[in-house]
């Protein structure tokens, strides 16, 4: 088989640059993702069963450069449609949880359940043979979902456009991690909770103001101002909810896991998996990945070979 006829595989190390990804147990996700990706690239290039390249490398960027997930997806889409067909994309990440006990490998896919199980089973079986348990305690071993970072960024812009500043992205983190296909409903629920919490604080302030002060022009003016702020929040919420549906629809399947061109309605889907190698919030997972990135790279590479049947 000539070099040019070998399958073309892109390796995407999640986060990087000013975006460290998740942080835990003294590690930054971006650094661990990069360590695995580099060793996986070495393995694939040495064995010459595929043509492998880092997404950053193909775009002429330094692997340490900040590069948003949405822009990576756009690059992959354009490369696939205008330069050369991409046979597979592996996106490398780590998971994180508020529970330090959550652990284990998770393989995310978009309508590629069989391939996700191939990757998961190959990695866990090879790891077991070497004396490692990377399965952890996850009930959900694989997940069918697109990369939600793109949608998150778009929503934050929508919030800002309507004058509602969401300074802490973690306010929506639980929803984004659990969401599958019910984007509109999930976003509405999350937004409603944030608004309701803020309205509750305003109402409590109003009650305190009324109980602490005798009726006065200044007190009434402050109370009136707080009530207007509360009403303004509700109006902003309505405006955002109205804008969610047209915003969400084009992006539901536009990601590293499912790259397509929503503007032209053309499906330029590229086969892809997003591999969450473990939980950076779990000490055992994080230390193992930091110490043995080459092992993870080998296990992932063998899973890729099985998927591509080479």
Secondary-structure blueprint:
Blueprint: E1 8-13, E2 23-24, E3 27-28, H1 29-47, E4 51-54, H2 55-58, H3 69-82, E5 88-95, E6 106-109, H4 113-129, E7 142-144, H5 149-161, H6 173-178, H7 183-212, H8 217-248, E8 272-279, H9 283-291, H10 293-308
Parallel strand pairs: 1-4, 1-5, 5-8, 6-7
Antiparallel strand pairs: 2-3, 6-8
Helix pairs in contact: 1-10, 4-10, 5-8, 7-8
Kindly describe this structure.
The chain is α/β, with parallel strands linked by helices. It folds into two domains: 3-146 and 255-308, Aminopeptidase (3-Layer(aba) Sandwich); 149-251, no CATH class. The protein is built from ten helices and eight strands. The strands form two sheets. It has a six-stranded mixed beta sheet. A two-stranded antiparallel ribbon has the order 2-3. Helix 1 (29-47) packs across helix 10. The chain is elongated. The relative contact order is 0.20.
Average pLDDT, all residues: 78
Which sequence of SSEs, written as H and E, runs from N to C? Answer: EEEHEHHEEHEHHHHEHH
Low-confidence stretches: 174-183, 249-255, 258-268
The amount of beta strand, in percent, is 5-15%
N- to C-terminal separation? 11 Å
The number of helical runs is 10
CATH superfamily of the largest domain: Zn-dependent exopeptidases
Strand order of the largest sheet: 4-1-5-8-6-7
State the total count of DSSP E strands.
Answer: 8
What's the CATH class label of the largest domain?
Alpha Beta
Query: In this structure, how is the largest beta sheet organized?
Result: 6 strands, mixed
CATH topology of the largest domain: Aminopeptidase
Overall morphology: elongated
Rg (C-alpha, Å): 23 Å
Q: Helix share of residues? A: 40-55%
Provide the structure class: alpha/beta
CATH architecture of the largest domain: 3-Layer(aba) Sandwich
In total, how many domains does the architecture comprise? 2
């Amino acid at each position: 088989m000539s070099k040019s006829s070998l399958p073309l595989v892109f390796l995407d190390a999640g986060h990087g640059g000013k975006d460290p990804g998740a942080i835990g147990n003294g590690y930054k996700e971006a650094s661990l993702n990069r360590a695995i990706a580099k060793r996986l690239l070495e393995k694939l290039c040495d064995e010459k069963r595929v043509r492998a390249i880092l997404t950053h490398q193909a775009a002429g960027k330094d692997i340490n450069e900040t590069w948003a997930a949405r822009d990576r997806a756009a690059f992959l889409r354009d490369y696939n449609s205008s330069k050369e067909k991409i046979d597979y994309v592996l996106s490398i990440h780590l998971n994180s949880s508020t529970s330090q006990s959550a652990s284990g490998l998770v393989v995310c896919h978009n309508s590629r359940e069989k391939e996700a199980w191939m990757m998961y089973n190959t990695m866990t079986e090879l790891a077991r043979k070497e004396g490692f348990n990377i399965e952890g305690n996850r009930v959900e071993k694989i997940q069918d979902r697109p990369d939600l970072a793109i949608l998150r960024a778009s929503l934050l812009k929508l919030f800002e456009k309507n004058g509602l500043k969401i300074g802490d992205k973690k306010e929506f983190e639980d929803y984004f991690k659990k969401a599958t296909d019910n984007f509109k409903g999930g976003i509405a629920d999350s937004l409603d909770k944030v608004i309701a919490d803020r309205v509750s604080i305003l109402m409590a302030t109003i009650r305190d103001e009324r109980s602490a002060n005798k009726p006065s022009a200044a007190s009434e003016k402050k109370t009136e101002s707080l009530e207007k702020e509360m009403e303004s929040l509700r109006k902003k919420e309505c405006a955002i909810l109205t804008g969610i549906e047209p915003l969400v629809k084009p992006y539901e399947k536009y990601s590293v896991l499912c790259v397509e061109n929503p503007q032209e309605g053309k499906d330029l889907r590229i086969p892809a998996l997003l591999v969450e190698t473990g939980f950076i919030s779990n000490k055992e997972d994080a230390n193992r990945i930091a110490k043995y990135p080459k092992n993870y790279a080998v296990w992932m590479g063998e899973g890729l070979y099985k998927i591509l049947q080479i």
